[in-house]
Specification:
With 156 residues, the chain is mostly helical. It contains five helices and no strands. 1% of the residues are buried.
């Protein structure tokens, strides 16, 4: 005996909390649904349609991102004069700070420190332990502010 087809292709069951059951009953009363099944069907359709819209939006965003990735980027040539000056200025600052720092440390301690070793250690510290370095720099700044004006109560 062939199975009679209905307008619904699958029967799905789910256990729900008493609170949700109450909310479904309220939806039936206020929105005029015929049964709990109608409320659940409407909610499922709404869920599917919303997800479809979100998926379409995400696909459009991905397509835009791919299009942007394919477009040529503005000139970021390292030989550009502006980049050369910035790189040169940063290099000079690192070298000067290393020289001054090594002279200060050499005057205070017996163990001598080379400027290159100091610069190398500072760069490694900045690259590998940036969060620790950030805290140290903040504490050093607050300490220097406190030393310049000891009457001012500065809290970290």
């Amino acid at each position: 005996m062939p199975k009679e087809e209905s307008p619904f292709s699958e029967r799905v069951g789910a256990r729900i909390s008493p609170e949700l059951k109450t909310r479904i009953q309220q939806a039936i009363d206020t929105h005029g649904y015929d049964s709990e099944a109608d409320v659940v069907r409407a909610a499922l359709w709404l869920y599917v349609e919303q997800n479809e819209q979100v998926e379409n939006e995400l696909n459009q965003i991905n397509q835009q991102n791919e299009a942007l990735a394919d477009t040529p980027k503005p000139s970021a040539i390292p030989n550009e004069p502006r980049h050369d000056r910035i790189e040169w200025a940063l290099t000079v600052i690192v070298i000067l700070v290393s020289i001054v720092g090594s002279k200060i440390l050499n005057a205070v301690r017996e163990e001598k420190v080379k400027p290159a070793d100091l610069a190398d250690e500072a760069i490694q510290e900045a690259v590998y332990n940036w969060s620790i370095l950030w805290k140290k720099l903040r504490i050093a700044r607050l300490t220097s502010l406190h030393l310049s004006d000891p009457t001012d109560d500065i809290k970290p």
